[in-house]
Design brief:
The chain is of the alpha/beta class. The chain has seven helices and nine strands; from the N terminus they run αβαβααααββαβββββ.
Length: 229
């Protein structure tokens, strides 16, 4: 949702200006592609932001970026999984058309589609995507895409769990006073509870695009951009 992203970035910029927080770090929680119509544009915006200021703009990898990279690494593997979860939308955003039913694709088709996507994305963007980290933290605040294992120390989390989630993440409260901020799972409104902060408010389904502002000694604040402006 490129328009919402642009609006929210303007809101963040104004908030930073008003609060004189020029050293603020922007953390994006992954899943920049697939569900909406603007995957290519969103990637270009984030890539440029990160390129201009690598230290203060951190883009984490989500499971949808993982599926895209898996398809490019092995087009003849279980690529239909990505197509079923919005991959066709991402291909279309880069100007690549696909048959309505991905099951009709032959091996040659899959190889050609992967080559076309690599060409459309370009080497710099692909290298950037491959290098996206899985987590970021400061103090007792951690940011990952999908969730963590509440029984394991944050420093020892499994990459698959951080990308796809853990069945106990929303059930068991952490006992180490750490707060974990995630996207991945759509919620009606931002949720802060029991060591968890959920900020994916379903922008692609008509909900707002949400950011949180967290700083030492202060409670979390929310910034939201809505489709109606």
């Amino acid at each position: 949702c490129a328009k919402l992203l642009s609006t929210l970035l303007q809101m963040i910029e104004e908030d930073i200006r008003v609060t004189a927080a020029q050293n603020a770090t922007l953390i994006f929680v992954g899943d920049y592609i697939d569900r909406g119509p603007d995957s290519a544009q969103v990637l270009r915006v984030l890539h440029q932001l990160n390129k201009v200021n690598r230290k203060q703009v951190i883009c984490l990898r989500g499971n949808h970026e993982e599926m895209l990279l898996n398809f490019l690494a092995d087009p003849l593997g279980p690529s239909n999984r990505w197509f079923r979860h919005g991959g066709r939308n991402t291909m279309a955003s880069f100007g690549i058309n696909m048959p309505v039913d991905p099951k009709e694709l032959k091996q040659r088709d899959l190889l050609d589609l992967a080559a076309a996507l690599r060409s459309a994305m370009g080497g710099l963007m692909l290298s950037w995507l491959k290098g996206l980290p899985l987590q970021w933290h400061t103090g007792n605040i951690w940011v990952v895409h999908a969730g963590v294992d509440p029984f394991r120390p944050m420093e020892e989390q499994d990459r698959k769990v951080m990308l796809w989630g853990h069945p106990d993440f929303n059930i068991v409260e952490r006992s180490d006073s750490q707060w974990v901020v995630v996207g991945h799972r759509v919620v009606d409104h931002p949720v802060k509870r029991a060591g968890r902060v959920h900020i994916d408010t379903g922008a692609v389904y008509g909900g707002p695009l949400t950011a949180i502002r967290a700083e030492p000694g202060a409670d979390i604040r929310y910034l939201q951009a809505f489709h109606h402006g």
